Amino acid sequence: MLNPRAIFSRHRGALIERAAGEWLCQRGLAIVERNVQIRGGELDLVMRDGEILVFVEVRHRSDSRFGSPAETITQTKQRRLIKAARFYLHRNGLSCPCRFDVLAVTGAPPDLEYQWLKNAIEAN
């Protein structure tokens, strides 16, 4: 039996990611894909910023009492994101400039605050 709390958490996460994608679209990015399940992990948002393919990690906290949502991205998580992005590029036969952005979201819908960190994760 599924835990009702887990279901609510997943639903809230989907709402936050949808709002994050719309917010980024209003700032000139275009959505390519959402919630890509791929070997190595999950990519929250895959977007285009002109010729650049942008892998966006969306992090949410209801408040910043214990720090920014962006601070929750560990070195391990960064390695997983890079690995997932490499698989995504390979699977889709892509060879293009890429970057990793983080969108830290604080609050509860509809009152969300966004902190957009462009090129937040460096892939070698």
TrEMBL record:
One of its GO terms (molecular function) is nucleic acid binding. Pfam families: UPF0102. PANTHER family: UPF0102 PROTEIN YRAN. Belongs to the UPF0102 family. This is UPF0102 protein BJB45_06080. It comes from Halomonas huangheensis. The lineage of its organism: Bacteria, Pseudomonadati, Pseudomonadota, Gammaproteobacteria, Oceanospirillales.
